[in-house]
Amino acid sequence: MVGGTVLFALDEDPLGAGAAGGQLRRIREEVEAQGLEARWARTGTDARAVLRTEAGLAAAVVSWDLPPGKRSPGEQGEKRGDETGGAAVLRQIGRRFKDLPVLLVMTDGADDDLERLPLWVAETVVGYVWPLEDTPAFIAGRIAGAARAYRQSVLPPFFKALRRFDDAHEYSWHTPAHAGGVAFLKSPVGRAFFDHYGERLFRSDLSISVEELGSLFEHTGPIGEAERNAARIFGADRTYFVLHGNSTADRMVGHYCVAQDEIALVDRNCHKSVLHGLVLSGARPVYLVPTRNGYGLAGPLPPGEIGAASVAGRIARNPLTQGAVSPHAEYAVLTNSTYDGLCYDAIRVARELAPSTPRVHFDEAWFAYARFHPLYTGRYGMSVGPDTFEGPDRPTVFSTQSTHKLLAALSQSAMVHVKPSPRAPVEHERFNEAFMMHGTTSPLYPAIASLDVAAGMMDGPQGHWLIDEAVTEAIRFRQAVARTGRRVAEAGDRPAWFFGAWQPPAVTDPATGERYDFADAPAELLRSHASCWQLEPGADWHGFPGLADGYCQLDPVKVTLTCPGIDATGTWADWGIPARILTAYLATRNIVVEKTDSYTTLILFSMGITKGKWGTLLDALMDFKALHDEDAPLDRVLPGLVAQYPRRYTGTTLRELCRSMHDHLRDADLVGLLDTAFQELPRPVVPPQWCYQRLIRQGTERVRLADAADRVAAAMVTVTPPGIPVLMPGESIGAADGPLLRYLGALESFDRRFPGFRSETHGVTVDDETGDYAIECVRQDEDIPAP
Predict the structure, then answer these.
(1) Whole-angstrom Cα distance, residue 177 to residue 57?
(2) Residue 775: beta bridge partners?
(3) What confidence score (pLDDT) does residue 80 get?
(4) How confident is the model at residue 81 (pLDDT cuts 50, 70, 90)?
(5) Cα(251)–Cα(46) distance, rounded to whole angstroms?
(6) Which H, E and C letters describe 281-305, residue by residue?
(7) Any bridge partners for residue 263, and if so which?
(8) Minimum mean pLDDT among 157-171, 394-408, 416-430, 578-592: which range?
(9) 120: Cβ–Cβ under 8 A, 6 or more apart, which residues?
């Protein structure tokens, strides 16, 4: 049996009479007898609907003279006025699938049937069918043979080998001990586990002893083939599959790139795993400071921050660099795109940093899809190469990508992509030592297969199709939010406020110069032109200073919802809807967002987003507005919160809670304190590695905020929101009235005032009785060395 689906895009009625109809019906029956499912479409519209929704196609049989039907609203694709329905279907197959076998059905009319076809058709189809000239069994055999070959070719290397091994049904005499799941069948709880996941998962959970599947550490066999295939797809010279997530990939790259007492340039908007890499290597960090806006969102590193003169000044002023082995940085790492969807002109960034370092690491945990849509051209690490950055100054570029975040892979699946330069060559054997140091000798083969499949899904036109669909749905949602807000304001029968989406209020068509409100802009314009998403220097809607034309761009699939209360310039309103209250309500509707700041919340439009999913979110936003405007009792809106903290919230209404929390945030100026704490960096005292060694040898102690002034932090402090380290190990906490302790003190006060809305603060211990914050500090009797 072949398996898969065959699209029959034919005008004939499959149940009708007549010689041609009867013959086609018999062909379909023969195809189904060979294990293929048949989908019949009688118009171009129906056929295109099947192409959009049926990813399991293995072949297509298309009539050139298929009636076109009506183009559905918002349907993508180029309109060609007199084009046949068959031609439109062939074009959509080319956009949707890579090498899907297509047989073109010809009529039994004129002898010049083939000659009247455009030349491009011959490059699209694999053959032709005259239904009455061969037997149904023969024609069905041709279809099934093409489908069988396609189904085999579509499988990427490792997944294909894993399926082949699974089909062999070999006895297992190696680890893991569950032996293909058999051990689970000997225990009631094990049987429940086995039944929940199914036998195939456990049969594919294998040991590295299975030589025919290759080695993750040696990069041989099907695993090595899969990594090389991924490198081709993602545009890298070399790609490594990494388990345990992008955090491990970051540590791996950092540990390889910089050595003991060498200087590393580090984006302060970095993930904590970057710091862990510095702890392991013993590097001396010099932090580069990104911009921030009035919402409290972290922006990009501005061009002025990464230029050679600015970097040299930061290195010279940093106390830690006095003990470095060289005054020059060996490595630079920055986040691209940021958590909130800001992505750089990567080629420009590489040029700006090239005088300062031979190695640049783009942490692209949230940006693995960038190569597969033209909106992101030149905005990802692997776009920096000899074709875009000529000459000897080009740095070696690393990209680490959390493949599972926004591509279709299992959790903890990640990749490292490398594009080396002669200036800083990357010898595989040397890098592989770092790879093995951070890897595991017991890899989960389904996770490796998911990396292989995630890469395969991006190969060819299907990759663009999948990302374009996510971009399109994000745009539709963004415009729906903007239009809903406008309708609410114009209705006049309710308070004229609604939530917003963080995006430019208007865009310009670069071809015509015509200006549109964002809500009314053609979707095709927003889908196709990166200029619509670029952050113009000085624009109030984004609020970031110091940018240059084209330097930074907003990623449409990362949608930040904005709440009334403050704007991107930091201007406070008299009233507001703190985002933590909104997301608490959304959770009661089984809607879980990615991140919540004071007045913004982030939602991600991955490939799994559907209209039904975002329509449900939009409905929940409308319902929250109605509950707020009618001043609904809080026990009706957030019953779990009231039940958990009855003394604090019983008798409170939703509007009262929003007002009191907004007043507290405004009076404390929490967003302003956040901005100051991130812009005025703490003074570095000792390298992070020295602090870690004290931490594991009882050379540290927990100190309350009230007593922490001028102490040296021994552990990183990361507050979510915004999810960025505010204090690094080895840094001075500063004065009692300094920016850091004022900000943390305001958070401490907020948590006491509004139980149930506590910030997630890594590196801070909270006393359950008093609510006091405590930070891990170096003991005062420790002999702190000079840098």
Answers:
(1) 38
(2) 703, 764
(3) 56
(4) low
(5) 50
(6) HCCEEEEECCCECCCCCECCCCHHH
(7) 284, 329
(8) 157-171
(9) none
Instruction: For the chain, give the number of residues.
Output: 787
Residues 718, 724: contact at Cβ < 8 Å?
yes
Instruction: Say how far apart CA 378 and CA 534 lie, in whole Å.
Output: 13
By the 8 A CB rule, do 725 and 275 touch?
Answer: yes
| DSSP element (H, E) containing 77 | none
Pairing of strands 5-9, 37-41: parallel
- Average pLDDT of 20-35? 86
Arithmetic mean of pLDDT, 666-670:
94
328: left (phi over 0), alpha (psi -120 to 50) or beta: beta
Query: Is the per-residue pLDDT at 524 higher than 70?
Result: yes
Interatomic CA distance for residues 658 and 529, integer angstroms: 39
Structure tokens at 45: 């519209």
**Each residue's pLDDT tens digit, 688-710:** 999 999 999 999 999 999 999 99
Task: Give me the DSSP letters along 161-219.
Answer: HHHHHHHH-PPP-SSSTTTTTGGGGGSHHHHHHHHHH-HHHHHT---TT-GGG-BTTTT
Distance between CA atoms of residues 661 and 649, nearest Å: 12
User: Would strands 552-554 and 342-344 be described as parallel, antiparallel, or unpaired?
Assistant: antiparallel
CA 566, distance to chain mean position in Å, is 27
Mean pLDDT across the chain: 91
Q: Which secondary structure element, helix H or strand E, spans residue 422, and what is its range? A: none
Burial class (CB in 10 A: 0-12, 13-18, 19+), 122: exposed
**Residue 738: alpha-carbon gap to chain centroid:** 36
Can you tell me the distance from the alpha carbon of 269 to that of 362, in angstroms, rounded to the nearest whole number? 12
Q: Are 5 and 56 in contact (CB under 8 A)?
A: yes
Percentage of the chain exceeding pLDDT 90: 74
Q: What is the pLDDT of residues 187-202, one digit of tens each?
A: 999 999 999 999 989 8
Q: What is the pLDDT of residues 366-375, one digit of tens each?
A: 999 999 999 9
The pLDDT of residue 1 is: 46
Cα-to-chain-centroid distance, residue 557: 9
Please compute the mean of the pLDDT values over residues 53-59 and round it to a whole number: 90
Rounded Cα distance, 96 and 114, in Å: 25
Cα dist. 8→37, 113, 507, 787 in Å? 10, 20, 42, 73
Nearest Cα to Cα of residue 406 among 615, 592, 605: 605
Which strand ranges, in their side-by-side order, compose the sheet holding 717-720? 724-727, 717-720, 760-762
- The four Cα atoms 667, 673, 675, 681 give a dihedral, to 10 degrees, of 170
The beta strands (E) that lie in 450-570 are given as 500-501, 506-508, 515-517, 552-554, 558-562
Helices 688-695, 272-281: inter-axial angle, 10-degree rounding: 90
| 3-class DSSP assignment, residue 638 | coil
Using CA atoms, how far apart are residues 410 and 671, in angstroms rounded to an integer? 36
d(CA 519, CA 753): 39
Could you tell me if 299 and 335 are in contact, meaning their C-beta atoms sit under 8 angstroms apart? no
Tokens of 553: 């761009």
> What is the SS3 string spanning 666-690?
HHHCHHHHHHHHHHCCCCECCCHHH
Phi, psi of 512 (to 5 degrees): -110, -15
Return the bridge partners of 332, or none.
Answer: 265, 360
Question: Stretch 741-750: mean pLDDT, rounded?
Answer: 93
Collect all residues with Cβ–Cβ distance below 8 Å to 619 and sequence separation of at least 6: none
- Strands (E) located in 614-695: none
Position 566 scores a pLDDT of 97
Bridge partners (DSSP) of residue 104 are 62, 128
Neighbours of 607 (CB within 10 A): 15
Strands 284-288 and 263-267: parallel
> What token pair was written down for 214?
């290759």
Alpha carbons 37 and 55: distance in angstroms, whole number: 13
Q: What is the pLDDT of residues 133-161, one digit of tens each?
A: 888 899 999 999 999 999 989 899 999 99
What's the rounded mean pLDDT across residues 206-212?
A: 78
Mean pLDDT, residues 541-553: 96
